[in-house]
Structures are given as structure tokens and as C-alpha cells.
């Protein structure tokens, strides 16, 4: 138990230090890349360093936490291996599974924390970050839809919009069509503009023309100055950006996606992949520990440098695999849930395979007297 606490303390310390180092590295690299955008678009250094980056750090933590915990596990296990502490445990009959216990305890806590952090804290700060990027960077995520929008308002009711302006919540060239159960049009409303009224939580159509059709196909036409109407559609249902789900908690994103599916919105691959990733990505912290400890427990020529190099290559392959598979989910060639979970399942199977092999101690060369002397 004392040895477990010793490992836990060293593991957490290494994880935190690596996390801080990677955050600083990422911020510096990002600032060097985007300083021209900030300067050209009028962002002050106060805004950049006191508003933008403090709200960007939670997103950075979410992204680099698996890499930091993997490197910390590789480094600590490699140290134990080089000092022959793992060899001593092997001689005492300790399996790789028992060695994993303190690492897994930390991994479970970090995974649970990152699930909560990614699901409810990061979206709040991402709202500020994405708004800042929209104003001050050229690579801001643009709107996925803003023109020629078609939505289902209710069964038998379709609304079409030529253009929607997100900031003012105003739609232009609006057509609302209502059909009978037999598919015959019973009413059509055409309006030059439609605006969202926050005080009444309703839509206001400007200068609408209302055409109604009776059973014989006869039309009655009326023109109004304005009509206040309540639709099942909210402003968020008309305009979407690629980063919408990033700025929503898990519960908000679930309601948002259900609303889009209900209204018949298309191109939902990207937001669905991002939504399922809120569940799958935190597990990478635990999966990489399952891979790091068995991998680094094997003593190799070249010491820890070789172990860290192998570990970094595998970690980047893991992250690259996620980025390679996600576009297939965006395009619909894979289901979004498969695109979000497949890389993690693949590496979990690989980690379990490595662990099973190492537990048989087939990869560990016998400890020589010279090794013991040099380790001391």
C-alpha cells in the first residue's frame, strides 16, 4: 500500500508538470501562428492574454491531457524499470496487473474528471473563445448553413428561408407552407422578413402575404403589415456553425441535435461526431495508461530515451487515427458514433494485447549482475 501511494504521488506530480509544460508550449506556438491575425484585426494584448487565452486553456487541457498522462506513465514506469524495481517486483511474483493498480486509480479519477470538465466546463469557456476567433482570426469556423434553408416546422408544415443573419436573428424571403394529411397545400405565407422577438419568444413576419386554399383549390389572398407567430423553430435551428456543439454542454448538445433532427436539418455528421466524442475522448486518458505501463516496463537498450520515443510515436498514432476517422463520420461514410468510438476501441484492444504479452514476461530480458550494478 505504501508503494502504491509512492507511485500515485509521483505519477500525479509528473502528470501535472507535463500538463503545465504542454500548455505553455501550445500557447506560445499558437500565439506565434496567429499574432498577425490579432494585430491586423485590432485585438489588444489585454484581450488576447486576459480574455482569449485564459478561456482557451480549458480546451487545451482537454486536448493534451491524454498525451500528458501517457508521457507521465511512460516516464515513471521507465524509471522504475531502469532502477530494476520492476525486476524486483517480478521476482516477488507481482504481475503487470498488480503494478497497474495505482496507475489505474489515477487514470479513473482523471477520466471521470475530464468527462465532467469536457462536458460542462469547457463549453462555457469555448463560447468566449469561439466568439473571439470569429472576430479576430481568419480561420474562424464559418457558418455551416446560412442560405437556402429548409426546415420542418411541424408535421405537414415546411418553412423555407433564402438567407438567415445569425447576429440579428433575421430571416429574409420566408415561405411557410402547410399541407393536409393527403399532401395538398392548404396555406402558404410569404414574407419579406421574419425577426425573432426576445421579449415574447416568438417570430414576427413583416408584410406577409397569406394565401389559403379550400377543398376545391380556390385561393383567398390577404396582405398584412405584420404577423406574430409561434413556431417550433428557435433561432439556433436556422443557422449553425461547425463549433456549435463545442460551445454546448452534453445536455444542451443532446437537445440541440434532437431539435435539428426533428426539423429535418441535413449535414449533421460533424456535430454528431463532436457530440459522441464528448463521451469517448475522456476515455483516452485511461486507455493510454493501459498501453503506457506495460510498454515502458520492458527494459531496452537506450534506456528511457527509447521508451519515450516509442511512447510518443504510439500516442501520436492514436491521436492521428482519431483525426483520420472523424472525417468519414462527417461525410456519412461511417456512422457518427462509430467514427467517435472506433479509434478508442482499436487502441484498447491493442493495449490489452500488449499487457497480456508483457504479463508473461516474454519481452523482458533476464537481469544481469552488470545491470544491477549500473542501476545502483
Explain this structure to me?
The longest helix is centred in the N-terminal third of the chain and has 41 residues, at 96-136. The strands form 2 sheets. Strands 2, 3, 4, 5, 6, 7, 8 and 9 form an 8-stranded antiparallel β-sheet that branches. The chain folds into 2 domains: 2-139 and 272-375, no CATH class; 147-238, no CATH class. Helices cover 59% and strands 17% of the residues. The chain is α+β, with helices and mostly antiparallel strands and 376 residues long. It has helices at 2-40, 45-82, 85-91, 96-136, 250-262, 269-280, 284-296, 304-331, 336-359, 369-375, and strands spanning 143-145, 147-154, 157-165, 170-179, 185-197, 202-206, 209-213, 219-223, 226-229, 240-241.
Cα shape: elongated
Q: N- to C-terminal separation?
A: 24 Å
Broad structural category? alpha+beta
Number-wise, the strands total 10
What is the strand content?
15-25%
Biggest sheet overview: 8 strands, antiparallel
Number of domains: 2
**What's the overall average pLDDT, rounded?**
87
Number of helices: 10
Fraction of residues in helices? 55-70%
- Radius of gyration over C-alpha positions, nearest whole angstrom: 28 Å
Order of helices and strands: HHHHEEEEEEEEEEHHHHHH
Taking pLDDT < 50 over at least 5 consecutive residues as the criterion, the unreliable ranges are: 361-376
Amino acid at each position: 500500500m505504501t508503494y502504491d501511494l509512492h507511485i500515485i504521488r509521483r505519477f500525479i506530480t509528473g502528470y501535472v508538470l507535463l500538463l503545465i509544460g504542454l500548455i505553455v508550449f501550445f500557447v506560445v506556438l499558437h500565439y506565434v501562428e496567429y499574432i498577425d491575425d490579432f494585430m491586423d484585426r485590432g485585438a489588444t494584448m489585454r484581450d488576447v492574454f486576459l480574455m482569449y487565452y485564459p478561456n482557451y486553456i480549458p480546451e487545451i487541457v482537454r486536448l493534451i491531457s491524454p498525451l500528458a498522462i501517457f508521457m507521465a506513465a511512460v516516464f515513471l514506469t521507465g524509471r522504475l524499470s531502469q532502477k530494476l524495481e520492476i525486476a524486483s517486483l517480478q521476482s516477488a511474483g507481482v504481475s503487470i496487473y498488480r503494478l497497474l493498480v495505482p496507475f489505474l486509480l489515477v487514470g479513473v479519477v482523471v477520466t471521470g474528471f475530464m468527462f465532467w470538465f469536457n462536458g460542462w466546463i469547457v463549453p462555457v469557456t469555448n463560447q468566449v473563445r469561439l466568439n473571439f476567433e470569429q472576430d479576430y482570426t481568419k480561420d474562424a469556423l464559418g457558418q455551416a448553413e446560412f442560405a437556402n434553408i429548409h426546415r420542418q416546422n411541424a408535421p405537414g408544415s415546411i418553412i423555407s428561408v433564402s438567407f438567415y443573419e445569425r447576429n440579428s436573428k433575421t430571416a429574409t424571403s420566408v415561405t411557410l407552407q402547410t399541407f393536409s394529411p393527403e399532401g395538398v397545400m392548404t396555406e402558404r405565407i410569404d414574407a419579406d422578413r421574419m425577426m425573432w422577438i426576445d421579449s415574447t419568444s416568438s417570430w414576427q413576419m413583416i408584410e406577409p402575404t397569406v394565401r389559403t386554399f379550400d377543398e376545391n383549390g380556390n385561393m383567398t389572398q390577404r396582405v398584412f403589415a405584420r404577423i406574430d407567430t409561434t413556431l417550433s423553430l428557435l433561432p439556433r435551428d436556422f443557422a449553425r456553425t461547425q463549433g456549435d456543439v463545442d460551445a454546448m454542454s452534453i445536455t444542451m448538445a443532446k437537445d440541440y441535435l434532437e431539435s435539428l433532427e426533428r426539423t429535418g436539418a441535413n449535414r449533421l455528421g460533424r456535430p454528431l461526431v463532436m457530440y459522441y466524442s464528448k463521451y469517448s475522448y475522456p476515455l483516452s486518458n485511461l486507455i493510454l495508461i493501459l498501453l503506457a505501463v506495460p510498454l515502458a516496463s520492458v527494459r531496452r537498450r537506450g534506456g528511457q530515451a527509447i521508451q519515450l520515443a516509442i511512447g510518443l510515436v504510439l500516442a501520436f498514432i492514436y491521436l492521428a487515427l482519431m483525426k483520420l476517422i472523424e472525417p468519414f463520420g462527417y461525410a456519412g461514410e461511417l456512422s457518427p458514433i462509430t467514427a467517435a468510438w472506433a479509434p478508442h476501441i482499436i487502441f484498447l484492444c491493442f493495449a490489452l494485447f500488449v499487457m497480456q504479452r508483457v504479463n508473461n514476461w516474454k519481452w523482458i530480458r533476464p537481469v544481469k549482475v552488470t545491470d544491477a550494478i549500473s542501476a545502483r
